[in-house]
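Morning F.,

Quick status update on the modeling queue. The single chain you submitted on Monday has been processed. Sequence for confirmation:
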Amino acid sequence: MKTFKNIIKELTKRGETIATMESCTGGGIADAITSIEGASEVLKFSAVTYSNEYKIKMGVNKEVIDTYSVYSIETAHEMALNISKFANSDIGIGITGKLNRADKNNNFGKDNEVFISIYYKNKYYDIDINVDKKSRKENKKVIIEIIINKLGDILWAEKLTK
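Structure tokens below.
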């Protein structure tokens, strides 16, 4: 079963670390990780960057946001890569999207579409999902579960190739 507890155990065994730059999940991934004993061994840094301004301050290329919008897989790539670099971590997770509301500051992209990028060993693993729960809290839970499963798949596949 894929859980953050198992992922933390595996990362600890490997001596690998993780960092997150979250937008619509508001730190939900970092919260889920830090709810597990031993998380301090693997979580290097986490940033919640709701605004474009702070995404850019954390290294996201403004030209990427201007070209593709803040709600795009390209921006999620930038978030994952730059948080990994900033924290000097093995894994970077970037999450951007809209949950249950329109964004008057960013009129692009579909409502309830979320872009997730996991950067690991110079490769991006992408997820583009539409969430349909009535509350933001429920949508965040769905996103976190999807990330747990994807991260578990990545680590398991990488383990099998060794």
